[in-house]
Design brief:
9-stranded parallel sheet; alpha/beta; 40% helix; TIM Barrel
Length: 317
């Protein structure tokens, strides 16, 4: 049964972007922390439903070693099934982004003919060590051949940077350090940089200052995306600050699923439904059918055996 089509009253704010791209990470970032293994066919249906709801970008999975993230051990089977003409998306499945941690992951993506990958870096020394088993500087040496080979094969490469607003081990992260890491990721050949508030400690003023620092360093807002967690209830406030700074790409997870398996204090991602509600009220185009999205998140919550943490899903579901 579809959710009600209740929508917020339209009250635009002058000066905001006319359209925003929602980069849906629920199928990868949202599910990677789940302890109980989710059947591949359920993941595939989740991806198809998200696309059918109008989300323009759906990151499908990660080619990380199954020892580190057992939930995503079926990445190749998932992508192959989605590309099947009979039951999947056909060739369009090859446009779904996947995360690759290194060249071995890239090899698997290339074998499947995929066209969009993402790499995942750190703004801090400690998290680089815990997540990548590299120093802050060594991570770039690790990423360089992956990005170079991917670009040489005609792939688009996105770069994530974690801990941009705070680190559970190091505390506050200097803005200039985040800008330096981000610029180095872009210099490797990434087309877009997603700045992650991995533990959800960022506030609106911090968002404004970070975006301004990137712009001052010569990075246009068109190359930046923002990735918020709602640990302290600040995600939508931070989106508002991002919009006012001109950012037009926001990562979000259907139903508010997910977190980071290497940072215990990283709770759920910004819920896609909550983001859609905000954008709709501001009159910003996003292309997403909210009722279909709520129905999808409600369906996935039933498979996971618990209610969605999204406020909008709870209100409309």
């Amino acid at each position: 049964m579809s959710a009600p089509t209740r929508l917020p009253m339209l009250v635009p704010e002058p000066g905001l972007p006319a359209r925003v791209t929602i980069y849906e990470v629920g199928a990868r970032d949202g599910l990677q922390n789940e302890k109980a293994l989710i059947p591949t066919e359920v993941k595939a249906e989740f991806v198809r439903r998200l696309l059918a709801a109008g989300l323009p970008v759906v990151e499908a999975t990660s080619f990380v070693h199954p020892t580190w993230v057992p939930q995503l051990a079926d990445a190749a089977d998932l992508m192959g099934g989605l590309a099947d003409e009979e039951s999947g998306l056909g060739d369009a499945a090859r446009d779904l982004p996947v995360l690759v941690p290194n060249e071995r992951g890239l090899d698997r993506a290339l074998e499947l003919g995929l066209r969009h990958i993402a790499v995942f870096g750190s703004a801090t020394e400690t998290f680089a060590s815990k997540n990548l088993n590299r120093t802050l500087d060594e991570q770039f040496t690790m990423f360089a051949p992956t990005v170079e080979r991917a670009r040489g094969a005609g792939m688009d490469v996105r770069a994530y940077v974690s801990m941009c607003f705070g680190d559970p081990w190091e505390g506050a992260v200097p803005i200039e350090q985040v800008v330096d890491v981000g610029r180095r990721m872009l210099d490797l050949g990434a087309s877009q940089l997603s700045l992650g508030d991995t533990i959800g400690v960022g506030t609106a003023g911090h968002v404004t200052a970070l975006v301004e620092a990137f712009v001052a360093a010569g990075v246009g807002v068109d190359r930046l995306a923002l990735h918020f967690h709602d640990t302290y209830g600040q995600a939508l406030s931070n989106v508002q600050a991002g919009l006012r700074a001109g950012i037009t790409t926001y990562d979000a997870s259907a139903g508010g699923l997910g977190g980071c398996p290497y940072a215990e204090s990283a709770t759920g991602n910004l819920a896609t439904e909550d983001l859609v509600w905000l954008l709709t009220g501001l009159g910003i185009e996003h292309g997403v059918d909210l009722a279909a999205l709520v129905a999808t998140s409600t369906w996935m919550a039933e498979h996971l055996g618990r209610p969605s943490p999204s406020a909008v899903v709870r209100a409309l579901g």
